[in-house]
Every structure is written in structure tokens, then in C-alpha cells.
User: What shape does this take?
Amino acid sequence: MSIQHAVLGLLQEGPRHGYDLKHLVDRYFAPDRPVAFAQIYATLARLESRGRVALDAVERAEGPDRRRYAITEDGRHELVRWLDEPLAPEPHLQAALFTKVVLAILSGRDVTAIVDSERHAHLARMRELTALRRSAPVPIGLLADYALFHLEADLRWLELTAARVDDLRTNLKLSTEDHP
Assistant: This one.
């Protein structure tokens, strides 16, 4: 997720404090992995240094001063540019699951055990997301669906890998013989 673009988008509605932005980012974009306050404040500092947000007001109350930020015209242009530009399709050809399988083969470990462990972890996460989707508001439900579809793709890949592990082992052995 692009925290800076989420912050810019939330500031379109009007000036906000970092505290409010953190809670909105968590609610709308990261319900199961809340962002740290420090990440929001660091993002605001970077956006301010780039001229994409500006300090709107400082409110003095009990405790620390509360700084309220507003999006600038440059910030609006950046947000529009980001919204209009397609994201690079993911995932890339470097994947942690693939790396685990290759390293297991290269080290002589049982690939079946690793594939089974990953499968169980994926299924457990899918159960969690399915339960979340049933009770969540539409935005969170859509995020859960997005994650579920990716997990389903990973499961299909794990099944394919399990079926082709002997071919992969042979291929990796040949490539290590070519390049000792």
C-alpha cells in the first residue's frame, strides 16, 4: 500500500491531524495490519518537504501540540497522477514461496513438508479472511476478497509445484553442474 497516496487522498476531504489520519488509514486500508503513528508522521514530513502537504494549523491543548495538515495543489496533482497511472502488475518473478522451494531442494530438505506447511498456513489465513468477510463492511470485505484470491493462486501454485518437484530438482541439479 502507498501510505503517502492514502494520506493525500484522505487530505482531499479537508485538513486533518496525523492522529486522525493514522486511524483512517487503519480503518480503510490496513484493518489487519495497522500502521504505526511514526509511519504516518514520517510520511507527513516527507510530503511536507516535497510541497505536497502544508501545515494548516497548530492547535495547543493539553499534551503535545496538534499539527493539522492540508493537501497542496502539488499534492492534488500527485494524487491524480498516481490514480491515473496503472500499477505494475504483481507479483514479480521473485517470490518468497518459490525461494523456499528452491532452497529446500538445494539443501536436500523434504519439499513435501514445506509445501504442506505452506498449504496449511494459507488455508488457515483463508479461513480467517472468510470469517472477516462475512461480518465486515463492504470496503473490508473487498480487501478480504483481494487477499483470498491471491491466496487461492498461491495454493494452486503449491499444488503444481508439489506435482513437479522432481522435474524442478532435476533442473536445478543440472544448472548447478553447469555453474559450480
In short: The mean pLDDT is 88. The first helix runs from residue 3 to 11. The helical segments are 3-11, 18-29, 37-49, 73-84, 96-106, 111-135, 138-178.
